[in-house]
Amino acid sequence: MTPAQSFPEPTNTEAIRVIGRFEAGQGIPDAMRSDVRMLGGLLGQVLREAGGDDLFEDVERLRLATIQAYEEENSDAFERAAAIAESFTVARADEVARAFTCYFHLVNLAEEHQRVRVLRERAGQPGREDAADTVATAYARLQSEVGDDEARRRLAGLRFHPVFTAHPTEARRRAVSSSIRRLSELLTQHDAASERGAEQHRARRRMLEEIDTLWRTAPLRSQKPSPTDEVRTVMGVFDETLFTTVPHVYRRIDDALRGEDSGSSAPVVPAFVRIGSWVGGDRDGNPFVTASVTREASQIAADHVLRGLERALDRIGRTLTLAADDTPPSADVTALWEGFAAAEPDVAAELAARSPEEPHRRVLLVLARRVAATRSGDRERGYARPEELLADLRAVQTSLADAGAKRHAFGGVQHLIWQVETYGFHLTELEVRQHSQVHRKALAELEAGDAISAQTEEVLELFRVIAEIQRDRGARAAGRYVVSFTQSASDLANVHRLARHALGDDAPVLDVVPLFETFADLQAAPEILAEAVTFPEFRARMAETGNRLEVMLGYSDSSKDVGPVAANLALYEAQEKIARWAQESDIELTLFHGRGGALGRGGGPANSAILAQPPHSVDGRFKLTEQGEVIFARYGEPAIAMRHIDQVAAATLLASAPSEEARTSGAAARYAEVASIMDATSRERFFSLVKAEGFAPWFATVTPLEEIGLLALGSRPARRGLSVESLEDLRAIPWVFAWTQARINLAGWFGLGTALEAVGDVELLTEAYRDWPLLRTMIDNVAMSLAKTDERIARQYLALGDRDDLATLVLDELALTRQWVIRLTGGEGLLENKPVLQRAVQLRSPYVDALSLLQLRALRALRSAAEEAGGSGADAEQQRLLLLSVSGVAAGLQNTG
Fold it and tell me: Is 224 in the active site?
């Protein structure tokens, strides 16, 4: 008798009742429930067609058991679910894991579709959104506090600067993402079609075909992507969403601020978005990112933006059929045409024949041709710099406005101007990141006068490539140089010294950005910065930029260093000190937040995090890293991207409102003693775990840490060293990813329960949760992290290691933290104060449990094989099952690292 047969199987009628009750109990909106059921039904049909009724029934057996186990904690359903997972052959377990993973992709799609549906409904009903949620309402509040002139000045200086990274946290293959995007389009078509009509039937048939493609597409990459592959993947987000969406964000805000005047006169909204990229530029610990890769990354991005500008100019130019009699051109526009006609008479004659007496149309088509020449490298016919194209567009805009065609001037032409201001000829502002130790080693070699290593030659070649990119595309295209693990001011000066070694007086323009990552470095940051700005190169560059300085803060390593609670408090303190120093020094500071997608790496809602920052640490400028699955979740769909940008920009603007700064600083002072107790006790508790003898190998045993390194997620190696004997060499992403897969999520919450228990005063802590933005954000994020944990699953993973003391420590802290978070947030369970988020987690949890059980059986088999005499543990089938389950759990939890 198999383990599965030792439990009575429910009847089909009972299965339908249990599953129906579960779905109804999650509070899913009717439209979304309909989408989930339809997509799930189509997946079921695909499973029957591809694997037969037996596969479908096996999937349903495990699904029903995990739902019952989730709803009935005291029943034997969990043991039955585990027994079912164990009963499958490896081949069947593989298919079941793939089925659940496909289901998660479809549920995620339905949820995204519902978000878009709600956003579109709200767009037609002004006033429904919260006052802090849009730039328009944040601006109105700012006006009331600081007056019209100051509010306009702050709006003009607004800047939101996401930086896309290639950190390996997107577990889906690009082919899978593309299939999901096609399904999204079909779901939209299905919504728009008449009920039960031919178009709706066609959409369902094509969805069935696409789900079949999703099922039959290998879910795992066969090999790691190269850095260039990563560049092209990110370019897809620009092509499909951001290039056209960002100007629509500006327009929507201008519409909200100016009403009917928007589009008929100059906008008040600046092009406040800048997109940065580390993809192809971040070489810290990644030997595959070379100078030639950086050059190619810049070329690929430039090609994409120039093609986009060419198409946009051509499209708007063709619609600008305004006759010269009614809309006469200005002298500047006439001169633009005559200059082109003299240089290229044949092409000018062709354009004139196609656009007779339509001077503005002809000139925009000329500008499209000049952009095409720029893309092809024709320096004689193309533009040397984006500023030249902007000047020509503004000449056309002024000409149209002066001739009375104001809606054309501040409509389509303004849209083009916004695109050039945002993206230039480079699309992304490519940033370089390198470890300070690499610079020290290179300088030691160069100053010794001996033959230099290949690594040092590569360091020097990078500066030559930066100079080349700047010559071709301007200083914005590549100029920021991030020094990771900055530990002294000399680490920053070393970058300029190396640039001089490479190019002498022809060194490129460089904005050297310190990255403070560890707890000790965060503490030392103000002193390091005070010394760095005395260096001649820093003084000269700051004089050119209006005394601007950028400083990066690392969330990942600081959290792994002292635990999530102490790290959050240390980051706040560091920002407070750096911001105070910058203000006293009359420096315009931009803090660059190295946030990840997971909570252990600074993840969570960005807008609430912004409003929890210290006074003057934002001042209208917010820059952060975006990576992996977060890039696609926030920027992959136009309506969601618009909403996200609007929310973050609103919070960035509102953070400097006097009332917000007073609230934040007042709370920090009022609860300073609470912070001190939480810092000391949480750190002590964290150290009791991670500094325990044998912790690192135990961690590698009770989580799929080693196996995660086998996933072909990104080009970057998973760890800095070769051993797991020490956490120092382990990167923050696998640290977070491994705990997430084990359903423990320890990196996001460990130590908080002990910290709150040490304070002990429930009334004081309830008041602090209400009034102290930093604590509220921390606890709300931990609540989300805890909601994705599962103690029964966690116990199974912890049992893989022979350390009851460490397992007990983890479980005790989990229980204590959960108890305190529920007590402070209110209600009887987690996330009761955030019902939409609670629904999303609860909808997925039992299905994630199914994949976790499959992962556990594979992990046990691999661990057992490794322990056998002479065993390697490298059973290919079990290893594949484990990796499939890792991908599926990542899809179900919607985050990795």
Answer: no
